[in-house]
């Protein structure tokens, strides 16, 4: 009987709802849940004043609404109102604060931005807004013991909400100025927002015990006009300031939320703004367990929005406009599980338990050979993935990685025609196309200018090639032959790689970060330059030592990179601006090549404050020409990542700048469940076979035992 019972148990294990191996809890009713990952580590900061990492912005930008945002589909990237009703009204002021007419904006001492908070913006339900019977805040404590009674934000029985006000935006900017907050913006914004440096010094000198109400302190450059209107005044002209208004740093923070999180005893339980964000965006955080998962749910107070009805060329054909005009968000809940290794992530994705292969990273590099093949149209999915209905979302990052020349180096630097030809010969010899295919599996695009795709000023096609290193042949850019590089070496005074005057071989020195380069890639680079007779010596070091060399100009060739803060050519062309050289500014400047050309610097200074238009575009074009002419960088490429989406995921277009895209994502849960069942069919025959074997082995013994029992009874 025991054997039969065991067999029955084994067979019953095959009964149940859904696949046996589903790692997710059962869905909550009819709620549409999106399943994704946070990998390889959880976010460190979720305070909008402190956070400055893309994996943190993934969460913050679903919860907060800064004044401006980006159009989901349009390229080049385009700003649009988000937390405000319309784009800011901009006025220019003279030194006395009086408005200037349009023809005199060049004389502006200040620029003022007038913003109007949207009337329907309302915060998520939160205990910070809960009101006691006496009209005061319900959860304000003086005794730390009272605060320690609460461990999670869900422990509070009472919540409430209120509309977003202009004073909340002003309060958030004051938090950026507070040295105790530790915002990375304090120095940079202090140069622009009028009075911020003064406020920072004042706040730094204030002794405090607990919460400090920043409403009691004035910030000259931020003026609250009424409940929905405020202005920000900056020094001089800086048109790119509007892009900063699209970052979470400028999202509203209510004073009562700041006060709530300063309750004594809360910090011990991680009840802080750095752990539990509070916003007016489409989602709110309902669970934060960094060792397991972060869960977002739809904000019931969200003002609502609709899916865009226009996009970039080709978006309609790719299906990105099928939901035009429909209300968003489409999903009710998003669960982000911590996956420290790619293999289990990849397995669960193929089983249908993750909707996409990643968020901040595509997580496809380590399984690249299993996932992709090179077909006639370029990169294609392997057959087994294509049969799954999986789709590709290639993402060219708005950034650039490069190896630069030290323009002050006595051998490779300088601006004579001979030095330019020497650097061009090295540029041609370094076959970037082959390098990317071998070491990055093609996940990169050869950069012909410092400006990446999607950024105004980037040119594609024949117009966009670097004519010193490439030719346009049969509709594509083709690297110049190695024979041309050898001829340039002759003209530069280094025939066959030897100094024509001394007969000494030319040896170049490349500083590399030891953890970022392999012996194989160093061997490849050595072979590439040997074709023109040039010897290479690598100087590996850790990042701290490499940074020290960059700051002191003690390099010949170095590696570096830059990812956009905002989608403007100024954010890349400043990498070559003379005063940004660490040797000139005595700072951690971005111009590590120490490139100095007066024409470039003058153009940059004019372009930096010029409004968009043909005149500015002409300046950008000329600066790119100078960069190519002077051969400032050995090579450069735009990084590319590949994301995968299961068949039930829609509106998957990647946005290189904004992470505020979860609200556009649509899931077909019925198709997901159907595919999960098909891909995770249990293999039950071993259970049946095992049950039969156990029965066959035990049944004779059971029968014999019962016979003995009956004989004894007689």
From TrEMBL:
Record-level Gene Ontology MF annotations: peptide transmembrane transporter activity
UniProt cross-references to InterPro entries, sorted A to Z: SBP_5, SBP_5_dom
Domain spans labelled Solute-binding protein family: 160-579
Gene3D superfamilies: Dipeptide-binding Protein, Domain 3 (3.10.105.10), Periplasmic binding protein-like II (3.40.190.10)
Subcellular location, record wording: Cell envelope
Transmembrane segments: 685-705
Keywords, sorted A to Z: Membrane, Signal, Transmembrane, Transmembrane helix, Transport
A GO CC annotation given for this chain: ATP-binding cassette (ABC) transporter complex
Single GO biological process annotation from the record: peptide transport
Family to which this protein belongs: Belongs to the bacterial solute-binding protein 5 family.
The protein's name in its UniProt record: Dipeptide-binding protein ABC transporter, periplasmic substrate-binding protein component
Organism of origin: Pseudohaliea rubra DSM 19751
